[in-house]
Amino acid sequence: MSIIQIEHLKKSFGENLVLKDISMDVNKGEVVTIIGASGSGKSTFLRCINLLETPTGGKILYKGENVLEGGYNLPNYRTHLGMVFQSFNLFNNMNVLQNCMSGQTTVLGRKEAEARKVALENLEKVGMDRFIDAKPAQLSGGQKQRVAIARALSMDPEVMLFDEPTSALDPEMVGDVLSIMKNLAESGLTMVVVTHEMAFAKEVSDRVIFMDQGLIAEEGTPEDLFVRPKEARTKEFLRRVL
Ligand code: ADP
Ligand code: MG
């Protein structure tokens, strides 16, 4: 079952057509990874999916309804999507627990006690439940990213979007975050992951999408993409990164 269907999505910044014509579906329980060179439009694509950027054209269907049509309840749509950024984007003035509770109380209207319980469950999942009183500034990059994941999960998203979640981390932190993501994938969470971690993409994805210059150049199973790529552009990219 498709949760999100993207049809002929386009996005330009002024004259710069960054997403030229992107169509893809996200099915329930699926892990889709997006790979591609820097500047190919991967972040813009994720940001269009959760409407941090307004697409210039095309459709985004959520459970069959086009969220870009006038009158659609956008705040409601957004609460179904969790996002984890390269740069963590935690609230620096709040401690770890507050970071994981605030969206729940303000956006979802949960009571404090329930929000706290959900936050603690998710912090435990990412191994950060011992740090509830810490402020982001006291944490390592890897710890911050684990909190950011717990914060997003606490909103019970239907789909989690990850934009290069390990790119800003020191090498020794990367493995922890990837293994948490792998656990989430195995638990059946629907995930769209932009990553440069090719081993992760190979091992965890159901489907890999290779983006090049604002288009999906090739997509398929990890086997298709990494073992028998068809397109010259895919082969060339893999030659550079593997
Ligand atoms: P990737 O994530 O694959 O590296 P991006 O989506 O960040 O690629 O960027 C694709 C192109 O879109 C780049 O040329 C970038 O300069 C441009 N771009 C991204 N965001 C903006 C923005 N807010 N304003 C203008 N141009 C942008
Ligand atoms: Mg990017």
TrEMBL record:
Q: Which UniProt keywords apply?
A: Amino-acid transport, ATP-binding, Cell membrane, Membrane, Nucleotide-binding, Transport
GO terms of molecular function? ABC-type amino acid transporter activity; ATP binding; ATP hydrolysis activity
Annotated signal sequence range: none
One Gene Ontology CC term in the entry: plasma membrane
Q: Any stretches that span the bilayer, and where are they?
A: none
What's its membrane topology? Answer: Peripheral membrane protein
Chief subcellular location: membrane
For the ABC transporter domain, which residue ranges apply? 4-238
UniProt KW Transport keyword: yes
InterPro entries per the UniProt record, alphabetical: AAA+_ATPase, ABC_ATPase_HisP-typ, ABC_transporter-like_ATP-bd, ABC_transporter-like_CS, MetN_ABC_transporter-like, P-loop_NTPase
Kindly list the places in or outside the cell where this protein is found, as annotated in its UniProt entry.
Answer: Cell membrane
Q: Which family does it belong to?
A: Belongs to the ABC transporter superfamily.
Quote the protein name from its UniProt record.
Answer: Peptide ABC transporter ATP-binding protein
Species per Swiss-Prot/TrEMBL record = Enterococcus florum
Provide the organism lineage as a comma list. Answer: Bacteria, Bacillati, Bacillota, Bacilli, Lactobacillales
